[in-house]
Structures are given as C-alpha cells and as structure tokens.
Amino acid sequence: MTSDTNALFTQLTHPNPNLRERAMVQLAENRDEDTIGRLIEMVKEENVDIRRPAVKALGVIGPDAIVPIVSLLESSDNSTIQTSCVKALAQVAVNHGPDAFPEEGVDGLKLALNHPNQLVNITAVMALGAVGSPMLELLVDTLKTTENVALGVSIINALASMGDARATEVLTQLANDESADTYIRESATNALPRLEQTIQYSAGNS
C-alpha cells in the first residue's frame, strides 16, 4: 500500500463530496491487490461516514468487487453491514449496467431478498431494480408469493421504475385483484402511470 493510496483512503472520508468522488475514481483506476479488501473492512465500520464512501467506492470499482461484497453479505450477521453490502451491489449495477452484473451478484441479492430484516430485503428490491429488466421475473415471483406488504409495495415501485412493458400486465392484474391487500392494490394503481411514463421516456432515449 503506497503513500499515495493511503492518501486516497484518507480523502475518501473527507467532508468535501467532490474530493470524496475524486478519491473513489482514483482508487478504482489505480487499485492494487489490497484496495478491495481494505474497502470491505471499511464497510464493517459502525461509523456511517466511513462506511458510506466505501460502499460507493466499491460500486465504482465494479464487477471485480462483487464476490468479496457477497462474501461479507453471507458471513455477517449484522443487518447494517448486510444492508451496506446490498447497497454496494446496487452501486455496481448503477455504475456499470446490468450486462456487467455477474451471477454471483444476483445470488447475493436473492439471498438478501429473503432476509428476515425488512431494511435488508427492501434494499435488495432497490438493488434488483437498479439491475433492471433481467431481474423482472424474480421481482414478480416474489411479489406474487410474499405476505410482507412493505416488501410488496417496494417491488411495485421498483417495477414502475424499471420501464419494462412486461410489468404493465402484472400491475394491472394486481390493481384489479379484489382479493389483494388494499394498500397493494392502491400502490399498483398508482404505479401504472409512472410505469407508462418511464416506458415512454426510455423509448424516447433509445
């Protein structure tokens, strides 16, 4: 670990967000064999000002960080750390796109989706939404089987944001299902116009 690298890690927690962002990019571009491991250790910290930039930096690094992130997700019994791992996976998807998101990352998000802690599983929904259309079937299957209303609403919102036309039928059926939870039906009804807007926006930018 060089002095320059140490300086970048120090800069990673600087109060100035521009300096933090610059450090993330430089760490990703000039990383060595210790960089990802050191960031993973930062994710374990209780201090959110240390943990959050490490999560974002792992997202900038991308697919190479997936396996260590998932390993920590699986081995930790701390829901805060697990949530941070899921956020890091989401950052990888946002920064590098679904095509760069490996199967190990999907497996990690599936694990988090079934986690008993609501913060972990709802964060997993957000991450799966960030991966995008390849995760639609997994989200729909979970939506159909879960009895967790909060999780169901999160999935509905994720589907509305994905801009995948296949979600239209799913949300329409749910909105018209009189046996469904009232809040779920209302959420599906409200999500349909947002989904349509997202589809139109995506079509206009394709």
Summarize the entry for a quick read:
This is Phycocyanin operon protein Z. This protein is an all-alpha fold. It has 12 helices and no strands.
The overall number of domains is 2
CATH superfamily of the largest domain: Leucine-rich Repeat Variant
Largest sheet: none
Cα Rg? 18 Å
SSE-based structural type: mainly alpha
CATH topology of the largest domain: Leucine-rich Repeat Variant
| Mean of residue pLDDT values | 93
Q: Unreliable stretches, pLDDT < 50, 5 or more residues? A: none
Sheet-strand content, in percent, reads under 5%
Distance between the termini: 43 Å
How many β-strands, per DSSP?
0
The CATH top-level class label of the largest domain: Mainly Alpha
Reading the helices and strands in chain order gives: HHHHHHHHHHHH
What general outline do the C-alpha atoms trace? elongated
* Helix coverage percent: over 70%
CATH architecture of the largest domain: Alpha Horseshoe
InterPro entries: ARM-like, ARM-type_fold, PBS_lyase_HEAT
Keywords: Antenna complex, Phycobilisome
Pfam family, one: HEAT_2
Protein name: Phycocyanin operon protein Z
